[in-house]
Amino acid sequence: MTSSRKNKTLFIDKEAASALELVKDGLLFPVTGLMGEAKSKKVYRTGRIGDKSFPFPFILAPSGTRNEQVISSLKKGEEVTILCNDEEFATLIVDETFQIDPTERTKQIYGTDDPAHPGVMATFKRLGSWAISGEYEIINHKPSKNIQLINETKIAIDAKHTSSLFMAANPLHRAHERLIRQTLDTTDLLVIFLLKPYESANLSYEIRKEALEFFINNFLPKNRVIIVPLENSYIFAGFNEIMIDAIVAKNYGCDRLTVGRNHAGLGMFYDSNSNKSIIDKVVGIDIEIQIASEYVYCDKCRTLVSKNTCPHGQHHQISYHANSILELLEMGILPPAVLIRTEISSFLLSKVLPDRFKNLEKLYYEIMPTGGLLEEHTEKDFYQDLMKLYQTTSLT
């Protein structure tokens, strides 16, 4: 229901709402609430909250002329209603309002304010020049049940170590599978944070989750893997992404975080005569961060290998670029099994292009060996059997 108190109403998007929910659930600790001007400046200067790392101030500065007019007119102690998607999301008692520099804020998050950088302009457009702090309460808030699930699973399997992975699995491919297996091989329980991006150029969360669940249920010890949905808001962007990942994973009860060597936020820098990464900046967050190998398919080794151990060079290696694999699926092309497990690519293609065949049963029986049995088949069945034909070698 839309609030009638227009002069004391702020409008935010789903990204801001998800960040506020994370804080309310204690999942961004050491952040415990919206920051005022003095604390924001200190965090910006030190990169810490107390003795723990946090890369930038946690503030609420929604864009829009109306939002800025409302925030700039508010007084301490006033109550403001916060709307998200035209629904009442939260109420806030004003403690402080202050001006910020959206360009500086964007640079804090991404390490650059270059508009050519992916995400910079999108984030800049959603930032206003006025911030507001104060205690807030989320309306009809339902705390996450995943922390309880993780704790119960730890007890059930007597887990000594709990590792975490953050992935979009857009789509889930063979290198993802290897990374999951490698991580699970050295831990008792694995929590996979499956990201829910706000971009349209993605498979839906439900499709990606179903594909991941299929892999877990059929090819892994499923009692040792938990999927946790995570809204992939702007705070997880930029060169500080790994630090925020580590904080969230720790607050969910994980003691290890595995990141890929080609992770965008792992960029190296030179300091005090030595090479360092963002991992070296993490202070006070008691979690072990492990860097996994980058996996490729080598046509000489004829298997999936780590780039660290394959001697054959890049010209013999197939890299797993999710965007390119997704492009094949969107064009209706069944990716080779070396890129995606056949059962998963068949499922994904049936979801990306549903009902693409005029007469599936006729096509199926005309080109597939059927053994004379009349059975109803799905598009997923068709793609799986089609892949078997692709892999037939007697005439090739």
Rg result? 24 Å
Spatial gap, N to C terminus: 64 Å
Any idea how many domains?
3
Outline: globular
Structural class, by secondary structure, is alpha/beta
Assigned CATH architecture of the largest domain = 3-Layer(aba) Sandwich
Main beta-sheet strand count, sense and barrel state: 5 strands, mixed
**Fraction of residues in β-strands:** 15-25%
Structure explained in plain terms:
This protein is globular. The chain has three domains: 6-138, Sulfate adenylyltransferase, CATH 3.10.400.10; 146-296, Rossmann fold (3-Layer(aba) Sandwich); 341-390, no CATH class. It contains 13 helices and 17 strands. With 396 residues, it is of the alpha/beta class. Strand 12 (269-271) and strand 13 (274-276) form a beta hairpin. The strands form five sheets. A five-stranded mixed sheet has the order 1-5-6-7-4. The protein has a five-stranded parallel sheet with strand order 10-9-8-11-14, sandwiched between helices. It has a three-stranded antiparallel sheet with strand order 16-15-17, with helices on one face. Helix content is 34%, strand content 23%.
List keywords for this structure.
Sulfate adenylyltransferase, disordered N terminus, about 400 residues, 13 helices, alpha/beta, 17 strands, five-stranded mixed β-sheet, Rossmann fold
List the helices and strands and how they pair.
Layout: E1 9-12, H1 14-24, H2 37-46, E2 48-49, E3 52-53, E4 60-62, H3 65-73, E5 79-84, E6 87-99, H4 102-110, H5 120-125, E7 127-138, H6 146-157, E8 162-167, H7 174-184, E9 189-196, H8 205-219, E10 225-231, H9 241-251, E11 256-260, E12 269-271, E13 274-276, E14 288-292, E15 295-298, E16 303-306, E17 317-319, H10 322-330, H11 342-352, H12 360-367, H13 379-390
Parallel strand pairs: 1-5, 8-9, 8-11, 9-10, 11-14
Antiparallel strand pairs: 2-3, 4-7, 5-6, 6-7, 12-13, 15-16, 15-17
